[in-house]
Amino acid sequence: MSKAFLLRGIDGSNPLGFLSAVGTLRMLPGSRLGWRLNEGMWRPSLTADDVETEENLCDRLAERSRLEPPEISMLGKNLTVAPKLFEEYVDKCARRLYAGNARASEYVVAFGSEVCVDHKKNRIEYTNLSFITGSGHQDFVTTALKLSERITAAHIREALFGPWEYKDQSLSFRWDPADAAEYALSASDPSKDGAWTVWGVNRLAFEALPLLPVQPTRRGLRTTGFREERYPEEFSWPVWHAALDSDTVRSLLSLEELQEECPPRPVLGAMGIGDVFRSPRVRIGQGANFKVSFRPARSV
């Protein structure tokens, strides 16, 4: 039996909220995700099999939040690794895939490629969604692993059904525009205060990455959802009406029409897309003391 849940804690115009909804979809095999306007916001509607209550849903997601260390821990703290190490990681995941562990290999296409290399720094090019690379003691892989260890059903409930209370310190991927604290606009030093975030949302959002894979191109690595020619780089994503499975959502996120300056509304509307949002990816700060964040999104 299937049941639809309105995830009323998530605003689809927030990039972190969108990623967490898509990540939730991927964590529940057989589920479907659509969007509907509710109180002026696009809220995700998740249809899940054999889940009867919100408590059941949160419990199941919490159980599946644990990352097995071999899946990503061999990369170290961040994705800024040498091509040889990433090649070994790809090979290890491929062997685990052949052994029947598909989950271990799903992150490979999301992280980077040993084919595209920054030769000056001897490291792979990695996804545009890796906003943290070690600066300020914020590490991408470490954050994912620590979140997977600490998440409870209560964290998931806050993420999906709200309100987001921002009572969890650090362990943020910086995908929430609220993370974009700027020195000139703050009463204190944001780097000393630490980031207050919502752990459950960040953990769910991490699971969206395999639906936004990277692709080697002649100009370097490209991340699904981004058009590098635009400055600053911007992440574009749709919200849609029909309840879609994760494979269909993966195809939807790769539509070239989403990257047009003015996405063709009649064409996208015929596909069931209700709106398209776009959020700039910016650097805040100078020199080595900078942070990467999203700006608030706009409807395009």
Please, could you describe this protein's structure?
Helices cover 32% and strands 24% of the residues. By secondary structure, it is an alpha+beta fold. The chain has two domains: 2-66 and 137-299, no CATH class; 69-136, no CATH class. The strands form five sheets. Strands 10, 11, 12 and 13 form a four-stranded antiparallel beta sheet that branches. The protein has a three-stranded antiparallel beta sheet with strand order 1-3-2, covered by helices on one side. β11 and β12 (289-294) form a beta hairpin. The longest helix has 16 residues, at 83-98. The protein is globular. The N and C termini lie far apart (37 Å). 41% of the residues are buried.
Largest sheet: 4 strands, antiparallel
Q: Helical residue percent?
A: 25-40%
Shape verdict = globular
Order of helices and strands: EHEEHHHHHEEHHEHEHEEEHHEEE
Number of distinct helices:
12
Topology:
Blueprint: E1 2-6, H1 15-27, E2 32-38, E3 41-49, H2 54-63, H3 69-72, H4 83-98, H5 103-106, H6 108-111, E4 112-118, E5 123-126, H7 140-150, H8 153-161, E6 168-169, H9 190-193, E7 196-197, H10 199-206, E8 214-217, E9 220-223, E10 234-240, H11 246-253, H12 265-270, E11 273-286, E12 289-294, E13 298-299
Antiparallel strand pairs: 1-3, 2-3, 4-5, 6-7, 8-9, 10-11, 11-12, 11-13
